[in-house]
Design goal:
Chain lengths: 332, 332
């Protein structure tokens, strides 16, 4: 720890790692310190592009560096479990990309490790920290739309079909649900709690992963969620929260939106506009450093219980829709 | 029959009956001839307002009038079966409000009666004949959006909760699914055929009817539908048809829309705008008269098979979501 300025490391050099690094530069208390990759060439290229001080050709070297405070785990889904454990067992705070693990069992082991090592751990559910989403939660808590009755949300884009790529490869944990469907599921859980009942269908790509997934939740508070995701067609990627007294519309793309509309019958629609520097990954990074400042190993804003609810709901959806992965990537 | 000008009668004097009468006036070959109600007072009031020639205080008198060519059955859902049979058995062509019956068994008896009596019969699924919907079907048939992958549609409005009124009264066949959910279900069936599998949830009003219903269809052509309806919150009442090559957006309120957008990646959105005189009930009325001109007892555009698919799908949704009615209104 460096007087409340933190040395960040990034594990992985993919697209998200790059966007995250750009957003991290917006934070004065974040030092872009190290990057680790299984390829020293990729690590050096990434470090050079984003001006990191160190580049490591293995994750083991990265976590062995005593100057690293926080590791952002940005490897493919199937590696989150192993990579996070490596960091936690080496005393590094971890911000791990979503989904936090391939299943609930893996995540429970990760929590155990964070507790045992007394190290901070959080799933990188960045939408939770975006100002537009926070506004949406505030409006609901203030009663602006009455009781929630129907949550409607999707996340769709037409991806290039590449069987070697991450999105359609079962060995890399590909598929629509875990990659993008997680966002609408997160929304429903945040606003109406864990569902008491789940129904779902999936379409399958030739590789066996889900190319699209549709989901219905019934919540204990007498509300429904209607959610879907797809990698084979474009969509709105919007969210509507319909209540007894009005509707909140989080505009496209809702998971990183700058605009929230409050629509109430007989009233003029209220537009909430947010000026968001960068893409929005900096807000979750700020939360990590705030927690470390306060000596916490868990965020109260996106807690382990939040992640547990999310991953166990994803497990339940997979069971209901028949989405499965090779055993070797689900093991502990 | 009166030289291709037809004497229309309306059975029922409710809101839809009134709107239908207004639209009927737009058609030169439609003669607003008679109205029948269980109350002679209401019949006379309706006839006076809409300038019908005859007002009858019973449905039996209405169908006994030899000058009546076509009866538009606009009574509550639970009466469609009995009222339509009365008309058909008296040799009157019937346009029956949706849902055509309370269940598949009732509808099969209605078809039998139309066949036996050699009389025209059609469900008043007016959206099928609206120019914007026809355009949507044409665009899909031309391949404008490639293969359909996801159909997304809702029908929502916050109704006044009145346990005596039609919408929430189980004895009148109330509930969201049969009244408004039928439209999204119709859309999915029209565009992707009868689903091979259905999942659904319902929320219940105190009266026992469904106040909201969410539905997922899996179609044989490897497509999904995500549908919902609600009487307890406002909603978009829009339809999106997402294909491999683009999206068709039927704008709110989609079931009677004047605007269809064709959205394709890298191309400017194409807006199709339709000038629609009246509300749009006249298009289905035109189809009835066209069929009679041609001596048909069934429309090929919205056929008995279309209605059978629709009512049997509604039956399946009800079973899946636990929506039931008192036995006396489902009987034959």
């Amino acid at each position: 720890m460096t007087n409340n300025k933190y040395n960040w490391a990034i594990l992985g050099t993919g697209k998200i790692a790059s966007i995250f690094a750009s957003d991290l530069k917006l934070l004065p208390n974040a030092n872009l310190y190290a990057v680790g990759s299984r390829s020293i060439g990729l690590a050096k290229e990434f470090a050079s592009k984003h001006v990191f001080q160190k580049a490591y050709g293995s994750y083991e070297e990265l976590v062995a560096d005593p100057a690293v405070d926080i590791v952002y785990v940005a490897s493919p889904h199937v590696k989150h479990y192993g990579n996070s454990l490596l960091c936690l067992n080496n005393g590094k705070a971890v911000l791990c990309e979503k989904p936090v693990a391939m299943n609930e069992q893996q995540f429970r082991m990760m929590i155990d490790s964070a507790k045992k090592n007394k190290v901070f751990f959080m799933e990188a559910l960045w939408t939770r920290f975006i100002p537009s989403f926070i506004k949406c939660k505030e409006l609901i808590e203030e009663g602006a739309i009455g009781d929630i009755k129907l949550i409607e949300s999707d996340f769709c884009f037409k991806a290039i079909y590449d069987i070697e790529g991450r999105l359609f490869n079962p060995l890399l944990g590909g598929g629509a649900l875990l990659d993008i469907g997680i966002y609408p599921v997160f929304l429903a859980l945040q606003l109406s709690g864990k569902p008491i009942s789940i129904k779902a269908f999936a379409l399958k790509a030739d590789t066996g992963v889900d190319s699209a997934c549709s989901m219905l939740f019934k919540h204990s508070d007498n509300a429904l969620s209607v959610l879907f995701c797809s990698l084979i067609n474009d969509g709105q990627t919007e969210a509507f929260i319909h209540g007894t007294e009005g509707t909140i519309h989080i505009k496209s793309m809702w998971h990183m939106s700058s605009v929230v509309d409050l629509i109430r019958e007989g009233e003029e629609t209220v537009h909430f506009q947010f000026i968001k520097p960068g893409i929005g990954y900096q807000y979750e990074a700020t939360e990590v450093m705030k927690c470390l400042d306060e000596g916490k190993i868990e965020s109260s804003i996106f807690s382990w219980q939040n992640s547990l609810d999310l991953i166990s709901t994803l497990d339940a959806i997979r069971k209901e829709a028949g989405i499965s992965y090779p055993k070797e990537i689900e093991k502990l």
